[in-house]
Amino acid sequence: MPKTLRIATRQSELALWQAKHVQVRLQTALPEIEVVLLPIRTEGDRIIDRPLSEIGGKGLFLKELEAALAAGEADLAVHSMKDVPAELPPGMALPVVLSPGSPLDAFVANDYDTVEQLPDGAHMGTSSLRRAAMLKNLRPDLRISSLRGNVQTRLAKLDAGEFDAILLACAGLERLGLAARIKSELSPEQSLPAIGQGVLGIEIRADDDETAAHIAALDDEYTHIRIDAERAVNARLEGSCHLPIAAYAVHDGQTLRLRACVGKPDGTVMVRDEISGPTGEAASLGHRLAERLLAAGADKILADLA
Ligand SMILES: NCc1[nH]cc(CCC(=O)O)c1CC(=O)O
């Protein structure tokens, strides 16, 4: 019997695209191995009527996939890095990241092309505390309401007239074949992306050296450095919940520029800072930037949300 690699995946269209992307990449690299999908239904997919921050935060979407890994039912799980908490559960590792898309937020509307074009007091939908903080900081007049559900559900609510505009990740829309819905990209100055936005991560059991060896070639070095810097910010700042934190790193292979901010979701306070240094020090740059943000008031913003 040929060796099989089993990819645990959520069943949303976005999760399936991501898992299939990794499946194809692995299958191409490893023709002698059979790479299959193991679809799993997770708690985060079942509860769609409450904000994510209320029902257990970011780790929710990963839990059941990690259980399948721990039980030996699956060999790897593919995640949007944005949904991966700062700390992995014991026994898990995330050795490979890849970045098949844009890291930026997308402005999506039917009657407007940019945030600037929105009329005074326009109604926007997002349930991301980060996007709410960015939007209110950019345009204090905007009215923002919670918007959950998968990407298609959110677009349907926009199309039904519940909102004048919504923000989504460009990457998610691209993966679903919905790039035509992107009216404009928000620049990092307008909306600094979430930590790991647009990046896929492959999680495995920490002791599974065989799978680690099979997937190693998929790792993207540029993205890995980016993730090391951004996740170091998260390691210092994040509690258990989904928070209004953004960090975004770019580099040229030598020098890394890391921007980060923590904002109040009502837009009244936004602590921003940035740091540059050698790519080899990505993680320590992230830690240092996080310390500076905390000292400049991020600690108060995060404590008030806890
Ligand atoms: N929060 C859900 C989620 N998780 C990953 C993506 C899209 C892909 C990505 O951002 O990496 C999305 C949709 C969105 O935020 O619009």
TrEMBL record:
- MF terms in GO: hydroxymethylbilane synthase activity
Alphabetically sorted, this entry's keywords are: Porphyrin biosynthesis, Transferase
Q: Per the database record, which ranges form the Porphobilinogen deaminase C-terminal domain?
A: 226-294
Q: Which reaction does it catalyse?
A: 4 porphobilinogen + H2O = hydroxymethylbilane + 4 NH4(+)
Origin species, per record, is: Salinisphaera aquimarina
Question: Taxonomy-wise, where does this protein's organism fall, top ranks first?
Answer: Bacteria, Pseudomonadati, Pseudomonadota, Gammaproteobacteria, Salinisphaerales
Provide an example Pfam family for this protein.
Porphobil_deamC
**Domain Porphobilinogen deaminase N-terminal: where?**
5-212
Is Hydrolase a UniProt keyword of this protein?
no
Subunit architecture: Monomer.
- What pathway is this protein said to act in by its record? Porphyrin-containing compound metabolism; protoporphyrin-IX biosynthesis; coproporphyrinogen-III from 5-aminolevulinate: step 2/4
> What's the protein name?
Porphobilinogen deaminase
Q: Which family does it belong to?
A: Belongs to the HMBS family.
Does the entry feature the keyword Ribosomal protein, yes or no? Answer: no
The note filed under miscellaneous reads: The porphobilinogen subunits are added to the dipyrromethane group.
EC code: 2.5.1.61
Q: Which cofactor does this sequence's record say it needs? A: dipyrromethane
Residues where S-(dipyrrolylmethanemethyl)cysteine is found:
241
Q: What does this protein do?
A: Tetrapolymerization of the monopyrrole PBG into the hydroxymethylbilane pre-uroporphyrinogen in several discrete steps.
Superkingdom of source: Bacteria
Q: Which InterPro entries match?
A: HemC, Porphobilin_deaminase_N, Porphobilinogen_deaminase_C, Porphobilinogen_deaminase_C_sf
- Note how many cofactor molecules are bound and how: Binds 1 dipyrromethane group covalently.
